[in-house]
Amino acid sequence: MDIPRDLFALAFYFIILLGVLLRFNQRKFSKFLLWTSIFLAGYFFTIEIQNKTFFILIPLFFFLLFCYFYFKEKCRLRNGWLLNLFLLSFVGYVTFITVTSTSLIGIGILSILIFVFFLVVLFGLYAAIIFLIGNSFIVLRHESRRLPNLLTLILALAIIGLVVLQTFGPKILPSWSVILLAIPTTIASYFFVVFWNFLSISILYQFNQPKYDQDYVIVLGAGLIDGLKVTPLLAKRIDRAIQFYRKQSAETLSPPQLLMSGGQGGDEKIPEAQAMREYAIEQGIPAEDILMEAQSTNTLENMQFSKEIMERERPAGYHAIFTSNNYHIFRAGMYAQDVGLKIDGIGSKTARYYLPNAFLREFIAVALMNKRLHLIICGLIALGFSLISIINYFFVF
């Protein structure tokens, strides 16, 4: 163990980190991640040079592979798999380096990971149940009792049901059929992995920082109050677009046009785009800087019809972004790519109590976009364990 080297590296890291945190008033977490990543890369490269080895190339390969596909098409679920594959390979690499080189920093990283792992194993499931039930009561206190607002409660009850089934099922069922209890557990584990993949790439997508050279900012519509006025949720989307509008105007003296996108629902008296336009004008945005797309009925149509307007207005080409609530921008970005729009999204803040419910709803929507694949995998899981159970009945029981 090279203690002087590691102590010097840690001192250097914390000194620079302190300077970074004092220098930046906003986005401190992203700056912390960036500096930590740079430091760890430099530190492990130094160890590789000392040992004359190249094992770091393995996680580096997966990282570069992730970067290539992410910056090519940000809103693809495969990016989540590549990101998590990189993280797993990096953890494996740190473990190897810690064992072979007795790295003090490696020991620290692994100690933190092992501590978190044991916390998850010991309390994770029960902590999740308590958190989901508590969150569901908070949501119901602030929101209506519609099905989309009950998702955290439904998930908590499903986990409780699964725990009860796995606890008492083996005591009730015949021994040959106990293997069937693995079906719901395996399917639940599969969807947990799929959800983790979706959540990790969705969170990463929140760090978009578009350049201040946009021609358009598309604002995605939502429902209206009494069919006439924007809801608080929709107002936040518009406010986020206005914030970008004003920053670009201050930076370049050339503000983008706000493209309000939303048609008229069956229970609405005016198109959402019109209500959004009126709200933006009330906030001081000039009417000439606002365009309207008032035909769309869903997010896919928001993107398709907005694209047609922008191409008509600027046939030579344009730069654009879109705004929505932070939990929604990844799926909205998927729709944008589906219609051939290469644009990024920026999210407006959502009340923290509502985020678990919102991300669950988004996950369900994204999962339904790939329902055939999920049905096939769930069917194969059920078929596999059923065959094992049948074999167990005829040849073991």
What features would you highlight for this structure?
Rossmann fold, alpha/beta, five-stranded parallel beta sheet, 397 residues, 3 domains
Descriptive account of the structure:
With 397 residues, the chain is an alpha/beta fold. The protein folds into 3 domains: 3-117, no CATH class; 125-205 and 371-395, no CATH class; 216-350, 3-Layer(aba) Sandwich (Rossmann fold). Helix content is 67%, strand content 7%. It is built from 13 helices and 7 strands. It has helices at residues 3-23, 28-51, 57-72, 78-101, 104-142, 151-172, 182-205, 232-252, 272-282, 299-313, 329-338, 355-369, 371-395, and strands at 216-220, 224-225, 229-230, 257-261, 290-293, 320-325, 344-348. The protein has a 5-stranded parallel beta sheet with strand order 5-4-1-6-7. A two-stranded antiparallel sheet has the order 2-3. The mean pLDDT is 89.
Detail the topology: elements first, then pairings.
Blueprint: H1 3-23, H2 28-51, H3 57-72, H4 78-101, H5 104-142, H6 151-172, H7 182-205, E1 216-220, E2 224-225, E3 229-230, H8 232-252, E4 257-261, H9 272-282, E5 290-293, H10 299-313, E6 320-325, H11 329-338, E7 344-348, H12 355-369, H13 371-395
Parallel strand pairs: 1-4, 1-6, 4-5, 6-7
Antiparallel strand pairs: 2-3
Keywords: Membrane, Transmembrane, Transmembrane helix
Transmembrane segments: 6-25, 32-47, 53-71, 80-99, 105-138, 150-169, 175-199, 373-395
InterPro entries: Cell_Envelope_Assoc, DUF218, MFS_trans_sf, Rossmann-like_a/b/a_fold
